[in-house]
Write a structure and sequence with these properties.
By secondary structure, the protein is an alpha+beta fold. 45% of the residues lie in helices and 13% in strands. It has helices spanning 2-6, 14-17, 21-35, 48-61, 82-85, 104-124, 139-159, 170-173, 203-210, 225-234, 237-250, and strands at 66-70, 92-100, 180-186, 190-195, 258-264. The protein has a 5-stranded mixed sheet, with helices on one face.
Length: 265
């Protein structure tokens, strides 16, 4: 509420403030401040991360199925090792689902709409409704985030989703196999585009078609003669690939998550 008061955010001004860097930083600092602080829930001294870990471990010990939402910044090797699923990792089937939207503009508009709705709900009853969370929906950051997700899913498919566990790369994937990878599109409606168990379609073609990296125009710098010469000199396929790789590593924040479905056999 302090952020809303400080920036005088109202139902009339909220939409125009969503892409301001200081507003985004304030909301993210508040979110992670609460998440990392103690007393995440009533009558429990843990922070939110530890509380969620505790709830997952209870489900595993009780041999229950559960869903875990992850960022997509990397393969969740930490979860797929014996520290979580125990010595008998075969007791669980692990499914991963990824949802992609083809248009960057559509994604940004959906996130704006979601934030505005949660803002209005919170303002109607701040005591009983959760505070809104504002992801970084600036074009460059959002595009780089989705490109990173695509890279993670591609790496996961080639390294972890294998019929023969003896061929699995445990350095990337842990001991437990990812039994099934599902890729959905959510443009106009949710549609299954790829299923590692049944699909005959080419995975790389599907993942490439569902979202293509967008060259976001930034700033108002004039395109001088010197800049044109630089562009011509370095505009090679090899250099573009190198630049893209560096860009992916530089922006690890993800706002279109993956989901792990763990089903006890």
């Amino acid at each position: 509420m302090a952020i809303i008061r400080e920036h005088e955010i109202t139902s009339d001004t909220v939409e125009g403030l969503m892409t301001r860097a200081d507003i985004i930083k304030a909301f993210n600092d508040a979110y992670f401040g609460v998440r990392n602080s103690d007393n995440c829930v009533k009558n429990d001294t843990h922070n939110c991360n530890d509380f969620n870990d505790s709830e997952m471990m209870k489900a595993i010990k009780a041999k229950k199925s559960f869903v875990l939402e992850i960022t997509g910044s990397s393969i969740p090797k930490w979860f797929l090792d014996k520290g979580w699923l125990g010595d008998d990792t075969d007791s669980y089937d692990v499914f991963v689902s990824c949802v992609l939207v083809s248009s960057l503009d559509t994604l940004i508009e959906r996130n704006k709409s979601r934030f505005k709705q949660s803002f209005l709900l919170f303002m109607s009853d701040p005591t009983n409704n959760p505070a809104p969370r504002l992801p970084n929906i600036t074009q460059t950051e959002f595009n780089d985030s989705i490109v990173t997700i695509k890279q993670t899913v591609t790496d996961m498919y080639s390294s972890c989703v294998l019929p023969d566990k003896s061929e699995k790369d445990e350095s990337k994937c842990g001991r437990e196999n990812i039994d099934r990878l599902l890729v959905f599109s959510n443009n106009d409606s949710m549609k299954l585009e790829f299923d590692s168990k049944t699909s005959d379609t080419n995975f790389d073609e599907v993942i490439g078609r569902l979202y293509q990296s967008t060259n976001v125009v930034g700033g108002r710098r004039r395109r001088t003669q010197k800049r044109r010469r630089f562009h011509k000199r370095f505009n090679t396929k090899k250099m573009r690939k190198s630049i893209k790789s560096k860009r992916i590593r530089k922006h690890p924040k993800i706002f279109t998550p993956l989901k792990l479905y763990t089903t006890h056999k």
